Structure prediction request, 863 residues.
Amino acid sequence: MKLAPDQKLDLREVLDNLQQYRPRRTGWAWRTRVPHHQVGPFVLEDTAEELRRSVPLPAAHAVGNIDPQCDCVITTEIASGRFEDDLRRMRMAAWHGADHIMVIRTTGQSHIDGLIEGTPEGVGGIPITRKQLRATRKALDAIEDEVGRPINFHSYVSGVAGPEIAVLFAEEGVNGAHQDPQYNVLYRGINMHRSFVDAAEAKRIIADAGILQLDGAHNANATAKEAWKVTPELFVQHAINTAYSRAVGMPPELIALSTVPPTAPPAPKLRLDLPYAVALREVFRGYRFRAQQNTRYVEADTVEATVTHVLDTVLSRLTSADIQSTITPDEGRNVPWHYNNVAGVNTARQTLMGLDGVMQLLELKQTGPLREQVRELKERAVLFLEEMVERGGYYAAVAAGQFVDSGFFPARAGDGIVRDPAAGDGAGTVVLRASDYGAPVCSHFGDNVYAGGVGKPCDAYGGCTLCDPSKIQYVDELDPEDSVERRLQGPLAERAAGVVRPEVERHGDGVVCVTVFVPASPRVAEAAALAMARRMGLQAPEVISRRLMHPAEGSVFEIKGVLDVAVRLHELALPAPEEPLGDTEIEAWVRPRRLAVVAATVGEDEHSVGLHEILDVKHGGIEKYGFDCQDLGTSVPVERVLDVAVQRGACAVLISTIVTHARVHEAHMRRLHALAVERGVRDRLVLVAGGTQVTDELARACGMEAGFGRGTTGRAVASFLVRALRRRDETAAGDHPTPTPTGGGR
Amino acid sequence: MRCVERPDDFASRRATLRALSDEELHARFWALVERLVQPLIAEARTHTTPSIERSVLLRMGFSSSEAAALVRRMQERNLLGQGAGRLVLELARRTGLSVRAAGAALVEGRYWEEIGR
Prediction:
């Protein structure tokens, strides 16, 4: 399967022939570091190889559209409930630098004792099934070819079917997995004996498959009332899972700690979170770190979330991170939307590039409060472990509510999570192995009559599925009514008919978001904002963010709603984009003619940068083609521009107009045109306007030949001038009217 | 069970740890962790679960529904302690059937009197 950047992902092709699909590689992929990496005008220190295709950061346009990539893997978490929609989101995220796609499982899958098959729809995530894994891995194969970097696919080996899920992941080329029995025990109410016995088998399987394991300790941050007070316990949770994994035979390079800076401003975030991050990296030297961003204190304001996530990412650079995970800025208010996955990835990408090489300039102080706090946290963690041992071990400690207590250990608030070792989902299902117990398969943990001999345990019957994948039993669908085929009927028919709708999460969901400031007290303002949204035609409008500006002066609201509008693409009037002429052709035409051009920023306007970009040879401006340019500078009256143009016998006038207050930019354009007509020179001059708020349509409506907006290059302007002047020459003998204002603008 | 409530007595508790170097403190940390993990791993080594046994059958080439049916019946007959995979493989050996055919026969309800002891 091959993707073309200008073609949408073909879901039919993804779903075609999945019974034959085999993953083309297994195991986790890190980025390839490139030290002292020359990218555009910069030498970068903490970078990896660039992508073949990507969307650079917005400011990249000023530095040659470079898109350097940081050295750590960037994660995005996807959870729409429909994998067929998630695949498109994965592709978008990959173009922005994500190479770790974490797929959240549907609510309740932890409690299903066995595997699910087919492609049923999920809630808050997708049901992890073999078909869904294959479709996703197959699409990711094509996406990684498109962007030119391996993409890690990740999901969860938890719940009461951990060993089976682990087999599934090993067979289907999943690259990363959460596996931590403590998560089952503390948050899923699953029996602790069952969780730990299952975990040993699951860990053995994922270790042999080269799957990177993440633990679940970060969940204590997300659930504790005061997340910064559970830090001593987090050392313990990380350590239990790490030591248990090592005992099963997992190598340290496959063990990653999932860690979150626990606080958010107005807490003194870095002062609290940095000692914790340093202490953790010292105690767990030799293991990998997946730095997650804070979710505990993320509210509805996406800007606030983003600032917290930037600070989290700064902390990663001040310490270390092998994986920088991202949280979508809208996680506090809804199931993440497509473009917010991209926003989250870009927050990490932009921050990490901004911090490139900073540790060559800085070091953390080795005396004073940092070291004292690091030491204190480690001692508190050791005391936590001592109390567990005194109590009689892990199970007894959980039963006594020692975990997720909001007291800063050894302080205790008495509000810990209490679980009974004899109770919970799957209680009583753990069975003692008989002396002749056997499991004739690879990647099995524990006593086994088939292990330890010569050859593999599965030799007796020609190999297990891990050795011979052709033995895997592929089940397509169990319930055709609840399947991807059924769900795709409507969307694919619409796509074939060339119909598009707004979308944030699922195909054509119609959801849009509007921002409304209402100058009234909060309660009144909110009711008014909703009324306005309804008047805009939004169905089921809902306030998803409210920010008080002032109790009396007003509040700003973000409102989501469904806009039931289907646009037929073939009915859109799209002027064909005109390809600019080539450099050689432009220069060959311009240079011998010695064409004069007069330019200025008009009105009361001191902006000069935009016009320089268009004129100056150093910026690739039109001078380089041989135009004789005279730049009159800034705040020049329109009259003077025209005077000089006439004196010099210029063929064209370029005006720049950035200030738009009271639509003064439109007035300047109209005035220039009117004045040129009045003086009888309009036919001799090509009039062009540029500016951040100028569009071609607007400029033409104001009497110009063309308008150019943000991102315009000198070549585009030169190309236009050549074409316009050629047309004028060609029709010079004929009876040609001058362009007249067409109305439309005000 | 009522959880313990306690003020922060870290200042007095840390007395025993103060003399340790950072490296010694790390060693103490990991030694305690090992002590806590040992009984957990010993239990895993000597016990099994329905999910482990289904995962073994998956690896032997059975579908998820076949694995579920086989393990459910073995559980009802208290046979899981011998290992679902071993029971199927031994039946295949005795009958001359392939592993998949032996499992399918069990799913159909045949041979149950022959497996186990």
User: Anything to note?
Assistant: Chain A has a mean pLDDT of 94. Chain A touches chain B through 92 residues (CB under 8 Å).
